[in-house]
Amino acid sequence: MPAIEHLTVGSTDPPPVDGKLRLYSMRFCPYAARVHLVLNAKKIPYDPVYINLITKPEWYTSRIPTGKVPAVVVEGTDLYESLVIANYLDEKYPENKLQVDDPLRKAKDAILIESFGKVGSIMYKMYFNDIDTETFDQFLAALDDFEKELATRGTTFYGGNTVKMVDYMLWPFFERMGSYAVPDKPQFKIPEARFPRLTKWINAMIADEAVKQHYLRPDQHAHHLNMRKAGTPDYVIIE
Questions:
Q1: Is 3.40.30.10 the CATH number for 21-97?
Q2: CA spacing 20 to 30 A to 155: which of 1, 7, 30, 149?
């Protein structure tokens, strides 16, 4: 499959598309994926423009202070940071509301999302170093809290009986977890026996319509990761 075009140094910002929200993204970025999922779930028409994060366009870094993705343009204003954008979109477009109404539940969801940082830091270490058993054991230990949280909540999803904002904010990172086990490292697959509720949640998320529209298989994520580690990142989605 041809590479997905990601704009780079020397490019120009494409003109806006009437009736569509402009989203600046990177196809393999989990933070940008959060916004794709919210837009998909709420059926908001949008125009994705992909940014090469290694050689960023000058016009992009001059507009977006962080130089990162995602970012969206709303009413002539640039918004960035995935959680900020997700919550803005949920309030701006009230159809299919993703945030829960109860303030305490919303606060607990925010804490859960924030607590994922511990898992994320270990994932980052495994991404850019040769994965080993000790680090993977630390990773699984950090995941135990998320298995327990599903047991405490007693529902298929963290958001309840249907997918909610908290699920979409966590999912992009879980989607990438399977890449550690491919092509020939099954010992680094998340063990279903230890994480039965988490496994059920993962399978239910893969079946979600908003997720399906942006989903990539573990081997597709692994290809991109391996190319990055080799110093030759590309944006090809392998068949």
A1: yes
A2: 30
The fold adopted by the segment(s) 103-227 is: Glutathione S-transferase Yfyf (Class Pi); Chain A, domain 2 (1.20.1050)
pTM: 0.96
Is 48 in a helix, a strand, or coil?
strand
pLDDT at 184: 77
Residue 156: other Cβ atoms inside 10 A: 18
pLDDT over 90 at 185, yes or no: no
H or E stretch at 47: strand 46-50
Q: Residue 218 catalytic? A: no
Residue indicated by tokens 């580690």: 229
Separation of alpha carbons 187 and 234, rounded Å: 27
Q: Once rounded to an integer, what is the mean pLDDT over residues 53-68?
A: 97
**Given a cut of 70, is residue 171 above it in pLDDT?**
yes
CA 7 to chain centre: 20
Among residues 21, 23, 26, 29, the one annotated as catalytic is: 29
Q: What is the mean pLDDT of residues 164-173?
A: 98
